[in-house]
Amino acid sequence: MSEIWLTNAWYVAGWDAEVDSKPLARTICGVPMLFYRKLDRGVVAMRDACPHRMLPLSLGLREGDSIRCKYHGLKLGPDGVAQEMPIRTDPVNRKVCAETYVTHERHRFVWVWVGEAALADPALIPDLWPCSSPDWAFDGGYYPVACDYRLMIDNLMDLTHETYVHTGSIGQPELMEAPIETVVENDEVLVRRWMPGIDAPPFWRGALGQEGLVDRWQICRFMLPSAVMIDVGVAPVGAGATLERHDQGVRGMVIDVMTPERATSHHYFWGMARNFQVQDPGFTARFKHQQSGVFIEDVAVLEAQQRSIAANPDLKLSAYRIDEGGVRARQAIDRAIRDSKQVQGGAA
Ligand code: FES
Ligand SMILES: [Fe+2]
User: Fold this and answer.
1) Which of 75, 153, 280, 324 could hold 68 in an S-S bridge, CB 3.0 to 4.6 Å?
2) pTM, whole model, 2 decimals?
3) What is the pLDDT of residues 265-281, one digit of tens each?
4) Is there a contact between 274 and 252 (Cβ–Cβ < 8 Å)?
5) Which protein residue has the closest C-alpha to ligand 1 atom 3?
6) What are phi and psi of 204, to 5 degrees?
7) CATH class label, 133-340
């Protein structure tokens, strides 16, 4: 099977709040890893398999910044290197070690670099700037999803699905009527929809705090290796908002980061940043709860889609015009995988 994810890339391993002193086990791009914080709050990422008999180290016991295997007591430091052997009087063999991975915290997430450590440049972390801007409020949640991470990207790059998947929550007929355009800018893919002079839906009317017609936008932005940031909002008609610049009204950024777990499962980190009522933590909590209900509707559909793909191996996915954003995103991923191979091949 050809590769379906980029290895030399940053992936979200967890929310900042999920990673603590107790080990968190999470398989990233097919590699079982454990994550924990040291006493200085720095994050350790290590292969979740004891070098001795492969018991998951995440079952082990923390000792200072080290971890001791729960089976025979091998103790490894945060660099993955043995500090004590199972029989403590045995000389320490420093060749005994578990692989460790480079991590970086940014935009409220812990990111891990799965590939070649020497290439792990924090500048390559997707620019989810609203998640860490002081002028915006941001929070969200996590779902494990039993489908190929690219099916979630397809879903997020095609918001026509809102009408049917989210009938009772955010779906609206006008979303089907507005024309969309798809633009590729370097490695980014944008799907843009501009809805001028419409009645603001209830959520946005409340956010704006006034009646009257609005211009509304939805701009889905795919970023390598697997993030989708959706710029949504409304501005009063005549305020001068455009597809390119629209800070005249209220604006939200739906944040979606998909981390492959295995070929047909992924970790889905979701949330929303907003630039209105940023000092209201109650709004943040209520909105997170509401969003969790909307996104679980996607999870149910995508897991059923994945099961159907597995049950119909003789059929192929079709792509219609609404799928262009997802198709372009997949092309960007495939291109990056090819380029990454060439860099490695050239260096060898
Ligand atoms: S399996 Fe970990 S010490 Fe034996
Ligand atoms: Fe959805």
Assistant:
1) 75
2) 0.95
3) 999 999 999 999 999 99
4) yes
5) 72
6) -75, -30
7) alpha beta
